[in-house]
Amino acid sequence: MENPPRRTVIIKLDVSSDDADALHQTKDQFLACANRTSDWAWRRDEYCITSKNKAEKALYGELKEETDLTANLVQKGIRRAIGAVTHGVNRLKNGKKTSQPHFQSWSVVYDKRSATFSDDHATLSTVDGRIDAEYVIPPKSEREDTPFGRYYDPDEWDASHATLQYDEIADEFYLHVTAKYVGGEDDCEIQEVEHDDDGPENGVVLGVDLNVNGAFAVTSTGAFIGSADHLTHRRNEFEKRRGRLQQVGTRSAHLTIQSIGDRFSEWSLDWLHNRANELIAEAERNGVNGIIFENLKHIRKRISNGAKFQQWAVAKFIELVTYKVEDTDLFVDTVNPAYTSQRCSHCGFVHEDNRSDKEFECLKCEYEVNADYNAAKNVANRYCAYIHRGQKSRDGWASSQLALKSGTLNVNGDFNASPHIEG
């Protein structure tokens, strides 16, 4: 087969505490290699280096000496950075905004030289030697009707490489294994293949939950952007000061009210601009096609008890994101998010008692997670379902998927978290 199909299967790993420590140290050194390479290759005043061979020739020796990584992992770190730099250069050539790549999200890239993949476990290179990690899957006799059984048959799919991810919220490791089809062509034609690309044929979306307390925006990739409490606190401080000045009643006090009002308006707008930039950066880091919000009518209804300022801030934020993505390849869309706060993103069970303030615990499957994070995943889930049923249209999309930190996952899957973004 000239161009065999590929698919990515996400597998939870059973990792001991000692092995987990080794993996965390491996991640730190792997990302250090990638960031060192990015610093070396990103030369806007001269020209950017996009040759992997040049980068390896210049950096491999010193990075291998400075780290405890295997030769293959050092090379993977270098190549990951050069790939990101190349993507940035292409954006610049097309007149689009970009910046130097910086790697901070938890991930390590493996191939057959640094890992082995079997039907029930994987071995992974670390800074402390190889470790064995068992797959958290049903017994072999019970796998046939599970996602693992349907999508990962070692007799027909050859695992070529994988990305290791860590879910900070659940304290769990997941291996995103990419496998190449090696079975017969006739068998392949009836397989439901998930291609390892997230171009327009298979659109990928980022769900966003907006709030007036806690994190201002929470994404389906697990990013917590800005503090709604901080925004509200600044507004309350302004209102208190304005109230005191109004009691004074002098012309000077009136002029001061106007002055501090202008300054607060400028600060608020600047704060929202920065949070919008962070959200768009999160979307671009994950290679998504679109950013999905709840529709504004529903948001206003949900936060109707909030101050008009809070409602303005949410509406303005969506407006800013929509405006800013015009210079990118992203789009912005909305969905009716009925029950997204009550629905379990893991099993789909809906009940009002699933959520208690910022905590979510499913009464059916006992899945526990941050409630806003769960809602953001449901927003993305809802949009994917609309695409699938034809209620939403995206030209050229054969299917839609939800954004993960690396790779994608279909509706009702487990998500891996990205770092907090404070603001």
UniProtKB/TrEMBL annotation:
It holds the Pfam family Cas12f1-like_TNB. It comes from Natronocalculus amylovorans. Keywords: DNA-binding. Residues 316-379 form the Cas12f1-like TNB domain. One of its GO terms (molecular function) is DNA binding. This is Transposase. Coiled coil: none annotated.
